[in-house]
């Protein structure tokens, strides 16, 4: 999104965007708006040309003073019911209508939505994410560009803050959308270095496959060794506070064929998204770094491609994790928990206040929660989750606490040849089993596990973006980290 702070509403005959409350007549700026419509605003409402029902979009032409102009309106419902999330939804929806009509220049009548400065954050955010265009290779692709102007002076800092958050989400979405022949561990490392190196308070370190083998990261190494494209373990530190770090761990399987426990042909399609956990951690880091937040965060990304090859791991293998646990591999398609085990061990070396991991981990979580809720597991009490659940509600990303207990731990230990096994091959409760597996590596550090298998992509277009990678949990976790309650 581009912004033009110079021109104002009356400058020319560009389209105008208006939010319409049921009780629009009570708006302090209504007279100004009505004057623009030559005193006819209510007639447009009475004729049904403009409607106030929440999220109802109308586009029409109107005589604004002396010019015929295009008018886009979005209903906001009753002003007393209006929340930040509803404003975001309405604004994102009207932007998508402008995009559909290929409108390239528009004025936003800011006060018709809200006279609160905070709304500018929502404008900046939704301006990036609602009209996001998935990374693609279409021959005739022309990116959509809209230049937005305002009817008054606006708080540019708030606007920029929202825009930065949106750009970070789109950065992560683009990584998820990239095809797996282009995006693999080594090429992802290059993109990470391009994005983060040289930024204030940021250090990046990368372990290649030789180092992983030498230093005993047996789980990540064994998964990644089945591919021509070798695995990497990436650590990004952003230290802009003296407190213990928050650790963010991401599953970065750049393609998940299943390995020798091969996926069926339909199950393999879309497995390029299996690095979305890592991509979304990168989006969280980018938000915090670009906004120069006073926090201490360390990101650990386990990057590998799960493929079939002569030396790929096979069901029945036993491998040794970095923390010394022996692991029986019963299913090579349960690779995410393997790479996360070693990544969590790495995160612990930073003595974090909390570890959060993000992973497209199980089909089972989709069965349990559908495609709009992220599954949340923890080794802490339910009370510990209150703050992160509050953040998720605040930003409108659904998050649901799922169980994990001793029975799952017992299942994880039910092997005769090793300390633990990666799959008990039973078709029930798979998300809890996977969580209990990762918990074998947390050493009692507070730990939250986000299973985003169902939510890493939007199943259909909504106000926050098209049917494509979602960048889920970036907004929730940034809010949670900035809230700082994990230090209480
Ligand atoms: N990446 C998949 C999980 C997944 C499935 C994500 C569908 C998004 C959509 C993961 O690596 C996997 O294959 N999990 C297996 C585990 C099983 C073999 C124990 C699953 O869920 O079927
Ligand atoms: Mn898999
Ligand atoms: Zn996977």
TrEMBL record:
<dbReference type="GO" id="GO:0070006">
    <property type="term" value="F:metalloaminopeptidase activity"/>
</dbReference>
<feature type="active site">
    <location>
        <position position="337"/>
    </location>
</feature>
<dbReference type="InterPro" id="IPR000819">
    <property type="entry name" value="Peptidase_M17_C"/>
</dbReference>
<dbReference type="Pfam" id="PF00883">
    <property type="entry name" value="Peptidase_M17"/>
</dbReference>
<feature type="binding site">
    <location>
        <position position="256"/>
    </location>
    <ligand>
        <name>Mn(2+) 1</name>
    </ligand>
</feature>
<keyword id="KW-0963">Cytoplasm</keyword>
<dbReference type="GO" id="GO:0005737">
    <property type="term" value="C:cytoplasm"/>
</dbReference>
<feature type="domain" description="Cytosol aminopeptidase">
    <location>
        <begin position="331"/>
        <end position="338"/>
    </location>
</feature>
<dbReference type="GO" id="GO:0006508">
    <property type="term" value="P:proteolysis"/>
</dbReference>
<keyword id="KW-0378">Hydrolase</keyword>
<dbReference type="InterPro" id="IPR011356">
    <property type="entry name" value="Leucine_aapep/pepB"/>
</dbReference>
<feature type="binding site">
    <location>
        <position position="335"/>
    </location>
    <ligand>
        <name>Mn(2+) 2</name>
    </ligand>
</feature>
<feature type="binding site">
    <location>
        <position position="274"/>
    </location>
    <ligand>
        <name>Mn(2+) 2</name>
    </ligand>
</feature>
<comment type="function">
    <text>Presumably involved in the processing and regular turnover of intracellular proteins. Catalyzes the removal of unsubstituted N-terminal amino acids from various peptides.</text>
</comment>
<feature type="binding site">
    <location>
        <position position="251"/>
    </location>
    <ligand>
        <name>Mn(2+) 2</name>
    </ligand>
</feature>
<feature type="binding site">
    <location>
        <position position="333"/>
    </location>
    <ligand>
        <name>Mn(2+) 1</name>
    </ligand>
</feature>
<dbReference type="InterPro" id="IPR043472">
    <property type="entry name" value="Macro_dom-like"/>
</dbReference>
<dbReference type="GO" id="GO:0030145">
    <property type="term" value="F:manganese ion binding"/>
</dbReference>
<keyword id="KW-0031">Aminopeptidase</keyword>
<feature type="binding site">
    <location>
        <position position="256"/>
    </location>
    <ligand>
        <name>Mn(2+) 2</name>
    </ligand>
</feature>
<protein>
    <recommendedName>
        <fullName>Probable cytosol aminopeptidase</fullName>
        <ecNumber>3.4.11.1</ecNumber>
        <ecNumber>3.4.11.10</ecNumber>
    </recommendedName>
</protein>
<keyword id="KW-0464">Manganese</keyword>
<dbReference type="InterPro" id="IPR023042">
    <property type="entry name" value="Peptidase_M17_leu_NH2_pept"/>
</dbReference>
<feature type="binding site">
    <location>
        <position position="335"/>
    </location>
    <ligand>
        <name>Mn(2+) 1</name>
    </ligand>
</feature>
<keyword id="KW-0645">Protease</keyword>
<feature type="active site">
    <location>
        <position position="263"/>
    </location>
</feature>
<comment type="similarity">
    <text>Belongs to the peptidase M17 family.</text>
</comment>
<dbReference type="InterPro" id="IPR008283">
    <property type="entry name" value="Peptidase_M17_N"/>
</dbReference>
<keyword id="KW-0479">Metal-binding</keyword>
<dbReference type="Pfam" id="PF02789">
    <property type="entry name" value="Peptidase_M17_N"/>
</dbReference>
């Amino acid at each position: 999104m581009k912004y033009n702070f110079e021109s104002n509403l009356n400058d020319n005959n560009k389209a105008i965007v208006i939010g319409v409350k049921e009780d629009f007549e009570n708006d302090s700026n209504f007279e100004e708006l009505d004057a623009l419509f030559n005193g006819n605003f209510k007639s447009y409402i009475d004729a049904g040309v403009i409607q106030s029902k929440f999220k109802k979009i109308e586009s029409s032409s109107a005589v604004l003073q002396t010019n015929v102009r295009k008018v886009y309106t979005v209903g906001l419902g009753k002003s007393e019911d209006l929340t930040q999330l509803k404003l975001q939804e309405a604004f994102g929806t009207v932007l998508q209508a402008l995009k559909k009509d290929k409108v390239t220049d528009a004025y936003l009548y800011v006060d018709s939505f809200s006279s609160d400065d905070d709304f500018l954050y929502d404008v900046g955010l939704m301006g990036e994410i609602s009209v996001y265009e998935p990374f693609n290779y279409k021959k005739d692709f022309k990116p959509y560009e809209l230049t937005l102007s305002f009817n008054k002076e606006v708080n540019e800092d708030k606007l920029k803050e929202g825009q930065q958050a949106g750009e970070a989400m789109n950065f992560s979405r683009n990584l998820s959308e990239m095809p797996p022949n282009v995006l693999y561990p080594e090429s992802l490392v290059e993109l990470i270095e391009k994005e983060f190196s040289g930024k204030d308070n940021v250090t990046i370190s990368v372990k290649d496959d030789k180092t992983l083998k030498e230093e005993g990261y047996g789980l990540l190494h064994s998964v990644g060794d089945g591919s021509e494209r070798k695995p990497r373990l990436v650590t990004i530190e952003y230290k802009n506070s003296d407190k213990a770090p928050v650790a963010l761990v991401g599953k970065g399987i750049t393609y998940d064929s299943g390995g020798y426990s091969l996926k069926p042909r339909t199950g393999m399609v879309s497995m390029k998204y299996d690095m979305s956990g890592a991509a979304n951690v990168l989006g969280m880091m980018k938000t915090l770094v670009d906004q120069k937040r006073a926090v201490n965060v360390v990101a650990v990304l386990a990057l590998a491609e799960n493929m079939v090859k002569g030396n790929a791991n096979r069901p029945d293998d036993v491998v040794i994790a970095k923390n010394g646990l022996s692991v029986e591999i019963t299913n090579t398609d349960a690779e995410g928990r393997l790479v996360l085990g070693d990544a969590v061990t790495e995160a612990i070396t930073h003595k974090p206040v909390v570890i959060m991991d993000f992973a497209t981990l199980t089909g089972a979580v989709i069965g349990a929660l559908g495609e709009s809720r992220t599954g949340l597991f923890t080794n802490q009490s339910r009370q510990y989750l209150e703050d992160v659940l509050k953040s998720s509600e605040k930003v409108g990303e659904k998050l649901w606490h799922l169980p994990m207990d001793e029975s799952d731990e017992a299942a994880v230990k039910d092997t005769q040849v090793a300390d633990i096994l990666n799959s008990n091959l039973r078709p029930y409760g798979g998300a809890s089993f996977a969580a209990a597996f990762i918990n074998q590596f947390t050493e009692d550090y507070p730990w939250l596990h986000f299973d985003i298998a169902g939510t890493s992509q939007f199943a259909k277009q909504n106000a926050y973006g098209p049917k494509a990678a979602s960048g889920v949990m970036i907004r929730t976790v940034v809010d949670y980290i900035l809230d700082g309650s994990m230090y209480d």
